[in-house]
């Protein structure tokens, strides 16, 4: 009943946290385990019960769920347990999110690097060919750790290169996804991954993940020519490929878009029903106030999306006073009594997505009120 209430009503954490925390002392292990899982379903409930959850990370029966819950909110008391989960390539739902949150704000990256390195070193050469395996790749936690650490993860470059040196697997294998993720990790490490340049140059001219390889080359070398020449291969159509957006974002951060690439961005925006929210942010950064009307027309449709809602709130915040017409849409999100339906396929994930969206919309409203 408590889990159902948390999934439906936004005020539930305040009413149920105490009851759920008391259930952690129940005589029956099954009740205690279920209480941890229900608390973990909600970020707000986890925050309210954080001290009690922290006392459970040494309990062999409850430590995983308790650590994942604390990890999602960035509570470093879960770090020791999470090191082990990453090292063991645990595929429990939530490992990647918790590892990313903890690693991003860790006081010492060394244990994370050691855990990720061991996961990569002990991974089997082949993975299941079931396409659903991508969602539970045993290396996903390690990659999120490396990407979160960025340049601090430089010691793990040899492990990433070793993974990329192996023959390309079947496209349906999660290992194909892992190889692409390894390239993304090299890009996050940046110049310290210079040893990867020769291999990335080969991948940039290949067919497996050329766009990701080009982005990594640009991030490592700082040379805009890598990104520009890749984009110049394609006509200015309505392509909204992720690689295009990744490269244009990198160019925007490193000197801005050339006119010909701005033209590509404008082409992406021609079909209003296919506008990608990331393209809208690029447009704002490139055109500023001249893009305000299009953004105000388009962004509200994304505000209730689990993936793009929080970035849309952030973009409205960046617009400052120009975003005032969107205040009503933000208020409609914040003042709801019930959760917004996200339709992710996992009701607990949908609950947390609503909490994150509400937090983002609340922060946007607070900032816009100061403008």
From TrEMBL:
Gene3D superfamilies in the cross-refs: Leucine-rich Repeat Variant (1.25.10.10)
InterPro entries: ARM-like (IPR011989), ARM-type_fold (IPR016024)
Top-level taxon of origin: Bacteria
Full protein name: PBS lyase
């Amino acid at each position: 009943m408590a889990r159902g209430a948390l999934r439906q009503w936004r005020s539930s954490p305040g009413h149920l946290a105490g009851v759920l925390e008391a259930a952690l002392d129940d005589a029956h292990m099954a009740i205690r385990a279920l209480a941890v899982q229900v608390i973990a379903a909600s970020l707000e409930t986890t925050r309210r019960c954080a001290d009690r959850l922290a006392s459970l990370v040494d309990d062999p029966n409850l430590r995983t769920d308790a650590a994942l819950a604390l990890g999602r909110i960035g509570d470093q008391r879960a770090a020791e347990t999470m090191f082990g989960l990453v090292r063991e390539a645990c595929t429990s739902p939530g490992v990647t999110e918790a590892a990313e949150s903890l690693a991003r704000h860790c006081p010492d990256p060394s244990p994370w690097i050691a855990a990720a390195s061991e996961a990569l070193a002990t991974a089997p050469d082949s993975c299941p060919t079931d396409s659903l395996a991508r969602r539970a790749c045993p290396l996903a936690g390690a990659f999120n750790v490396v990407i979160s650490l960025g340049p601090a993860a430089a010691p793990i470059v040899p492990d990433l290169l070793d993974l990329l040196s192996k023959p390309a697997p079947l496209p349906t294998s999660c290992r194909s996804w892992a190889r692409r993720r390894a390239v993304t990790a090299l890009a996050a490490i940046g110049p310290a991954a210079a040893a990867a340049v020769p291999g990335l140059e080969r991948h940039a001219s290949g067919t497996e993940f050329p766009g990701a390889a080009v982005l990594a080359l640009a991030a490592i070398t700082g040379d805009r020519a890598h990104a520009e020449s890749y984009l110049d291969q394609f006509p200015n159509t309505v392509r909204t490929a992720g690689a295009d957006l990744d490269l244009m974002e990198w160019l925007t951060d490193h000197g801005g878009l050339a006119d010909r690439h701005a033209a590509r961005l404008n082409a992406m925006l021609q079909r209003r029903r296919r506008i990608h929210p990331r393209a809208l942010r690029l447009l704002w950064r490139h055109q500023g106030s001249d893009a305000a009307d299009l953004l105000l027309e388009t962004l509200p449709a994304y505000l209730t999306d689990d993936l793009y809602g929080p970035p849309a709130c952030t973009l409205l915040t960046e617009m400052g006073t120009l975003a005032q017409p969107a205040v009503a849409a933000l208020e409609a999100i914040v003042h709801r009594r019930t959760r917004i339906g996200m339709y992710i396929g996992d009701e607990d994930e949908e609950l947390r997505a609503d909490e994150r969206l509400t937090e983002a919309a609340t922060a946007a409203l607070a900032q816009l009120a100061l403008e």
